[in-house]
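Example 9 (inverse folding). The structure is encoded as follows.
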């Protein structure tokens, strides 16, 4: 992989461009991209697009001695390992247990969450999703807090 600069004449006027040059892995192909200014994000985005296109082209390729494209052969091969989806839904949450302290606070993921004072010094079940933390005592929801 190499970076550099070059003077080019794309429209008849001298322009300085930033170049990104790389030999693509697992092939002898060379990837060259010119940019109006030096910017690592732009280099990597162009490289990503090139690699995606190479992968798509490779999936359409018909292998020697095979009757269908590589994509079909891979799908067929994977089919034997795929299992049906479970009938029950998966609850995307973390469950935990914690004691409410004397200030009626429960610690979870470096944060403190409040519960009503009558639950101080009690064992609390924590049900945490990406959006909220629910605090449960003996099967009853006692507090709910939004996560930041």
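The amino acid assigned to each position is listed next.
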């Amino acid at each position: 992989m190499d970076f550099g600069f070059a003077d080019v004449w794309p429209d008849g006027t001298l322009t300085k461009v930033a170049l990104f040059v790389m030999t693509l892995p697992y092939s002898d192909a060379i990837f060259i991209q010119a940019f109006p200014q030096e910017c690592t994000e732009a280099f990597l985005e162009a490289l990503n697009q090139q690699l995606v296109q190479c992968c798509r082209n490779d999936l359409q390729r018909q292998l020697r001695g095979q009757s269908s494209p590589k994509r079909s052969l891979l799908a067929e091969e994977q089919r034997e390992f795929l299992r049906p989806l479970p009938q029950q839904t998966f609850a995307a949450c973390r469950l935990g247990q914690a004691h409410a302290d004397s200030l009626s606070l429960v610690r979870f993921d470096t944060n403190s969450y409040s519960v009503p004072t009558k639950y101080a010094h009690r064992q609390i079940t924590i049900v945490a999703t990406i959006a909220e933390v629910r605090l449960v005592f003996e099967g009853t929801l006692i507090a709910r807090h939004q996560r930041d």
